[in-house]
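FAQ: What does a ligand-bound record look like?

Like this one, built around cytidine-5'-monophosphate:
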Amino acid sequence: MDYAKKIILAIDETSIDRIRTIVESTSKYISTYKLGSIPFTAHGPILVREIIDMGKDVFLDLKYFDIPNTVSKAVEQAINLGVRMITLHAMGGEEMLKRAVEVNSGRSMLFAVTILTSMENSQLSLIGMRGDVEDMVVGLAKMAVNTGIDGIVASGRETSLLRESFGRKPVIVVPGVRMDNNSRDDQKRVVTPRTAFESGADYIVIGRPVTESRYPEKVLEEIIQSCELYK
Ligand code: C5P
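The answer part, i.e. the structure of the complex:
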């Protein structure tokens, strides 16, 4: 497997110079950059176009979560920007996802975010959810897959379960990736790159361990090596 193409780099930065430096220093290994609410709020569509003009793909991670009309029109705008991947919250509901799938009609890839990797069981009851993370992830994924969405975003801890439930078809993207299984920041349901791929992830998303390193290229090399050693 060409692991380099399977690693999506999350750029959660505001400075345009920092963003350019990160892209330049990682370009050898990364073909898709994930832009979320931080860089998009700071720089908007201009940044998306700049990265696409550099010959890279953009994963627009704005996690749309609104009424179906609003989301389908926002998705249309995202598609017009030329992004390759787009996220929506599965919790926005079946109708919202269906309308997005219809408007997309296969132009971009749409991903339903299940339960954020920063959440764990103890937090679910506080927002009124019954059941544990695994039940919620599988339940939301089931609804999302039935709408014809391209893929699911979940933690690597649920990937095997998702593959057992839905087979090979949905594309699975796994954020919350760390070089060991310990969480040192806001991410809670973390896994290593190797575990993510072994349990069935198609793509991993990693940000700070790479972007905050003094040697981002070296961290990426380590990630690729840690996967290839065990293939
Ligand atoms: O720096 P870190 O590796 O934690 O970055 C993970 C990225 O993936 C962040 O940009 C975060 O917004 C995003 N993400 C996530 N969990 C999800 C969906 C997206 O961490 N369920």
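Follow-up question: can I read anything off the structure? Yes, for example: The pocket of cytidine-5'-monophosphate is lined by residues 10, 12, 36, 61, 113, 116-117, 153, 175-176, 187, 205-208 (CB under 6 Å).
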